[in-house]
Structures are given as structure tokens and as C-alpha cells.
Amino acid sequence: MQPTLKNASISTRIIGAVIDQLIILLLIAAELYIYFSWIESLLPSHSVLQYIVLYLPILLIPFAYRISLEYFFNKTVGKIICRTKVVDEEGNKPSLAAICRRTLWRISIGGPITSIYLISYFDEKGNFTRMNHDVHSRTLVIQE
């Protein structure tokens, strides 16, 4: 890690994560509204296709939101508001593979434990440095 990179504080990261979770919930609510007001009437009742059209977007929204925004812009809406961004350990734009690993650790493998920031890494002085999903994806969240 470059010494000029300033890690985002844990409180800043929690605020950004809460903002992102609210946006993801709004996206899921919008998808459900569209489904129940329009798509459901077009599909046969209780068909496999009906369940795929309903549940697949709900499962993919968190992944699509985080991967697309972090890969193309190095930040999600929560990070924009908190003035932070995702970089690799050298301070460069992370690869798509790193962003995918980061998202998988955060959402599925790490589950709610990493999402609510219980697993953290601290330096020798006791200062917060990284989250579990940062370590496994070799990324950092820095203050801009």
C-alpha cells in the first residue's frame, strides 16, 4: 500500500454501506412493483418462467449494482456521497476480477458478517485498515 493513500474510516464506510443498502432495497422494490403490476399478468400462473422472472433480478440486483459501479467508476452511490473510492493495493483501478471477488465476499460468502462490519483488520496502532472483503480481493477503500 502506498503511504499517500488514506484509508476511509470505519464510520464513513458504514454510512456508505447503509446508503448503498437502501438504494439496493429501492431497486428491488421497483423490480417487485414492475413485476406485480405488469409482468405477472403476462406469464402463466405458477410457472417456472414466472419464478425465474421474479427471483432472478432480485438475486442479481446487489451484484449488478456493486460490480458495475465499482468497476466503471471505482465507487457506488454511497461512496460518492462519502467521498471514498475503491482502489487496488497500489492505488490503481481494481480489475474486474478483484471487484467480482470483493462483491462475492461481501454479499454471499461473507454474508451479513462482513456487511455489518464485524470482521475488520487493524494496524499495529489499533487503527482500522480494511474489511474482510478488502483483504480477500486485495483492494482498499480510500478517502478522496
Mean pLDDT: 84
Termini gap: 15 Å
Low-confidence segments, ≥5 residues, pLDDT <50? none
Beta-strand share of residues = 5-15%
Treating each run of at least 4 consecutive H or I residues as one helix, how many helices? 6
H-E string:
HHHEHHEEHE
Helix content: 55-70%
Task: Work out the count of structural domains.
Answer: 1
In short:
The chain has about 140 residues and is mainly alpha-helical. The protein has one domain (about 10-144). About 60% of the residues lie in helices and about 10% in strands.
Task: Please characterize this protein's 3D structure.
There is one protein chain. This protein is mainly alpha-helical and 144 residues long. It has one domain (10-143). It is 60% helix and 12% strand. The chain contains 6 helices and 4 strands. Strands 1-4 form a two-stranded antiparallel sheet. Strands 2-3 form a two-stranded antiparallel sheet. Helix 1 (10-39) packs antiparallel against helix 2 (48-73) and helix 2 (48-73) packs across helix 4. The radius of gyration is 17 Å and the shape is elongated. The two termini are 15 Å apart. The mean pLDDT is 84.
Compile the SSE list and pairings.
Blueprint: H1 10-39, H2 48-73, H3 77-82, E1 84-88, H4 96-109, H5 111-115, E2 120-122, E3 128-131, H6 132-137, E4 139-143
